[in-house]
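Q: I'm writing up a methods section and want to include an example of the input and output format. Could you take the sequence below and give the corresponding predicted structure tokens, formatted cleanly so I can copy it straight into the document?
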Amino acid sequence: MAVLELQGISKNFGGVQAVQDLDFEIGEGELLGLMGPNGAGKTTTFNLISGVYAPSSGVILFQGRDITGMKPHKVAKMGIARTFQTTNLFKEYSVLENVLTAFHLFLRSGLVSSLFPNRERLEKERAVRERALEILNFLEIEHLQDEKAGNLPFGHQRLLGIAMALALAPKLLMLDEPVGGLNPDEIQMVIDRMIKIREEEPDIAILLVEHNMRVVMGICERIVVMSFGKKIAEGSPREIRSNPDVIQAYLGSSYAS
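A: Here is the clean output for your methods example:
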């Protein structure tokens, strides 16, 4: 069953068509790569799915439900979580505190219970803390729980961003360039954790946008390639690697021929 379906999605910004009639779907537990040169429309597509933008036309379905134009907090509450190209952390908070903030959608309470917490609220907060520690342990950064997020190396900051996304218990995890700007050791660390999520959390589908072709080709089962807002190819890594339209989009017509 498709977790996510995009049907004829387009997005215009004035006279610029950033995404044009885009169709693709992600199956339950699948790891799908979304590739393309700079300006291809990948991040705009992420923003359309997560509710940052409303599409100009087309339909977005999540688990069979129409979420087209739904607000970001409602999209997140339904089970779609994302990371960002620039790490979006509370840098003065500890690693554990950052993950705890991601549970805010599930810890709404009134003024009275906030000022005078009852047993139910205290138990819920204890359970949330335990779950946050489980996520940090799963990503193998529990030893950093008391460190300020702003003091972490970039690779661990990216893992913390993924931890915050996992706190939303997503059915779809959207990773926006998770290894961008990292050194080779950090890249391998993040790759290892993505593979771990794929193997040990099989109910979570992953949509990965990444410029590092080695990463996408190495871990994705299927890849969608965009250029100038349009889908130009879709298939396995082997099929994408030899596709002349993809080669032309990245290297130019002389290479493709």
